[in-house]
């Protein structure tokens, strides 16, 4: 594999300091509840509101600040996401009765978690699309209580009106003006104004990700997401202008986002590098995008598509685009990715916003063992069983022997006593 444009190694974060800082915030929220949340709201966002929950009047005010077109756009995207989530839910079936032997009935139910929190980041941009991506599949799964939270706009007591409207359109039952590690702690352990939930989903900065790690176990999480990633597999038929645009779409997320191109064409590789530089000169978000591209952008020349495919599977990227002459054939050989985009017409940003698939995806090679947020994230497959007396008497001797073989006499007797009952 020839390196056309190299990237830096990601800096080793001060993980120990981060863990300590986040742990201190979590402990503060557990001990001091809302007082700690209000204090952190003011410290980090200059927000001085005392009521953390957003009122109906504030939601109406948010709608009033948006144009009809903006509201219609959010609703149209929501319908696509809702339709795909409903179709996914329909594939998950309950198993009411399976009988391995006469008198034994086994089965499972598909049960939604009872409550969840959808964490919608604020940061540099109002990421209102994330509100749709989180709350809609939760509602499609049948979660009875869907809460959502987001930090307020810097120096105000308000969540971005677009984010607030999107949360409402997505069906959130409760909305709170709070963000950061403190929000994760609040929804994990509860405060005076916030009742704890069973699961927390959504991306965030390093503090949010670390808080989710530390709270996992007390509360369920989707995964701890890191910087955004895009990998493009391309051959000589790909369009360098399109590929460069997709790379920069990822690069503008933040300075540690990563855009990678693996191609079998050296001519295309050189064209992509030149095209990225050209487009950066006219990109409004060039300051962040250029930093990301310069530090973490990468262009590699593979000897064959098979070598490119092996490299992509090893990288397990968050977003994986195929821009080759036969994208479907390449797709069959790929197995590690958060979401796959096949063909030059299929922009990664379509999935970010409105195609219907989810954009909350695993990063930092987590796609090796998990997919992204989907309706199944909020569902539990819970088994059940029942025995007739005859079936119990047939199976009990086997279970008794197996239990004694492990040295667990109490287990053996729980089986044996049933067998010995007249």
From TrEMBL:
The keyword Acyltransferase belongs to this UniProt entry's keyword annotation: no
Annotated PANTHER family: HISTIDINOL DEHYDROGENASE (PTHR21256:SF14), HISTIDINOL DEHYDROGENASE HDH (PTHR21256)
Protein name as catalogued: Histidinol dehydrogenase
Pfam families named in the record: Histidinol_dh
Cross-referenced SUPFAM superfamilies: ALDH-like
EC number: 1.1.1.23
Active site positions, chain numbering: 318 (proton acceptor), 319 (proton acceptor)
Pathway(s) per entry: Amino-acid biosynthesis; L-histidine biosynthesis; L-histidine from 5-phospho-alpha-D-ribose 1-diphosphate: step 9/9
Cofactor binding: number and manner: Binds 1 zinc ion per subunit.
Binding site for substrate: 228, 250, 253, 319, 352, 406, 411
GO biological process, one term: L-histidine biosynthetic process
Chain sites annotated for binding Zn(2+): 250, 253, 352, 411
Function: Catalyzes the sequential NAD-dependent oxidations of L-histidinol to L-histidinaldehyde and then to L-histidine.
Keyword terms: Amino-acid biosynthesis, Histidine biosynthesis, Metal-binding, NAD, Oxidoreductase, Zinc
Residues at which NAD(+) binds: 119, 182, 205
InterPro entries referenced in this protein's UniProt entry, alphabetically: Ald_DH/histidinol_DH, Histidinol_DH_CS, Histidinol_DH_monofunct, Hstdl_DH
Cofactor dependence: Zn(2+)
Reactions catalysed according to its record: L-histidinol + 2 NAD(+) + H2O = L-histidine + 2 NADH + 3 H(+)
Family named by the database record: Belongs to the histidinol dehydrogenase family.
GO MF annotation list: histidinol dehydrogenase activity; NAD binding; zinc ion binding
GO CC annotation terms, alphabetical: cytosol
Gene3D superfamilies reported in the protein's UniProt record: 1.20.5.1300, Nitrogenase molybdenum iron protein domain
